[in-house]
Amino acid sequence: MIDTSSSPPLTSEQVSNLTRQTNYGTWRFQKSWKPLHVADAEGCWFTDGAGKRYLDFSSQLMCVNLGHKNPRVVEAIAQQARELCYAAPGYATTSRARLSAKLLEVLPEGLNKFFFTTSGTEANEAAFKIARMVTGKNKIISRYRSYHGSTAGSIAATGDPRRWAMEPAGKIGGVVFAPETNCYDCPIKHTYPACNIACAGYIEHMIRNEGDVAAIIVEPVVGTNGVLVPPPEYLPRLREICSRHGVLLIADEVMAGWGRTGKWFSVDHWNVRPDILVTAKGITSAYVPLGLCATTTEIADYFEDRYFSHGHTYEAHPLTLGPAVAAIEEMQRLHLVERSAELEPYVRRKLEALKAKHPSIGDVRGLGLFFAVEIVKNRSTKQLFNTMRDKVEGKPLVVDRIVAKMMAQGVSIQAWISHFIIAPPLIVTKEELDLGLAALDEHLSIADALVEA
């Protein structure tokens, strides 16, 4: 063990080794974990302990929307610490009032009652409890290609294999799963638009036959599981189904919110108001941990004369709320929501050119500065190089080989089983976009060589 009490600073290798020895690496086999020491970051770049710079092409975990080290948010953190570090959630604070007022400017109209958490995971837990309290029902409908968090309730509602280690979490959590909306590779083998949005109709069938359904939770634009963008009719129809059956609609905007898709929130693309909206990540550009569960007045009114049975020590923590005000104001000052929308055609055009060039690219999809590039072994059959089971069992993934090559070249990008997620900070320049896409272009040759005719 390294003695950290001595005066000489730790070397970069010591930082990495000590982290490896004493911490768990998340969602991975521990034996292969060799964490890179990140020593600094600014703008769209971060720097390792040896001084090498990396283009942050996925905004870390699709969250550093403002880029690194925004001076106004950094100062807001310091200012809040000087003013008030903590107050129990039963008290009002200036930062709480200011952020609440700011949220009313940017959230979909009608979402005006807030519960603050320290993560998207906790925001989803709050949403589930609120939905069950208000409706008096128990079941939550989620979708298979989804991720909603890592705590007991949120992992139960997660459709992807990160849930498997917690089984039978779904049964304990009262969660049932519906097919995702994926027009590139429909899980129920329909073809849009002739399908008449059969995936939404399937959910209505579930509501009728499950009974006791309190809410449906969806990522309006699916995040980690492939940046799946629904057809225009999907969310309006789902809204109508929920309203007709007395089921609450929960929009998980943890990843797709805060300008990522070219709107403040991805539901804004379809003018749909959910009953509950949960978000985190970009609300502070991830500089401090903050999550939000926002509800309608109708839901809020239920608790005027009924017990609100939820809370925790760090709810509405002042150190998280003050910087969020600065982050939102910076997004407004820099017009980053508009910038995300303006850069979308440029990114789409570049990615479509890559698809025409590389036989391993099966699909390109996205909105704003939020895109996925899905690679396949066979374009005709849409067969993937790897499966979810491969990920859980630790088998080598083709995407990981490409990620490693890009990283060595100084471009950091997130990948998940069969696709890459392109989600740079919203301040990214066209030159930086070109640099990242050029690295992807170069190393897709690894997948191209494995394509089957």
Structural class: alpha/beta
Strand order of the largest sheet: 4-10-9-8-7-5-6
CATH topology of the largest domain: Aspartate Aminotransferase, domain 2
Cα-atom radius of gyration:
22 Å
The CATH H-level superfamily of the largest domain is Type I PLP-dependent aspartate aminotransferase-like (Major domain)
Q: State the helical fraction.
A: 25-40%
DSSP, total strands: 16
Mean pLDDT over the residues: 96
Which term fits the overall shape? Answer: globular
Instruction: Pick out the low-confidence regions.
Output: none
Please, how many helices? 16
Strand content: 15-25%
Major beta-sheet overview: 7 strands, mixed
What is the number of domains? 2
CATH class of the largest domain: Alpha Beta
Distance separating the two termini = 53 Å
- Write the CATH architecture name of the largest domain: 3-Layer(aba) Sandwich
Explain the overall architecture.
38% of the residues lie in helices and 17% in strands. The chain has 453 residues and is an alpha/beta fold. The protein folds into two domains: 37-66 and 335-448, Aspartate Aminotransferase, domain 1 (Alpha-Beta Complex), CATH 3.90.1150.10; 71-333, Aspartate Aminotransferase, domain 2. The strands form three sheets. A seven-stranded mixed sheet has the order 4-10-9-8-7-5-6, sandwiched between helices. Strands 11, 12, 13, 15 and 16 form a five-stranded antiparallel sheet that branches. Strands 1-2-3-14 form a four-stranded mixed sheet. Helix 9 (234-245) links the parallel strand 7 and strand 8. Helix 3 packs antiparallel against helix 11 (318-333), helix 8 (198-210) packs parallel to helix 9 and helix 12 runs parallel beside helix 15. It starts with 11 loop residues before the first helix and ends in a 5-residue tail after the last helix. The mean pLDDT is 96.
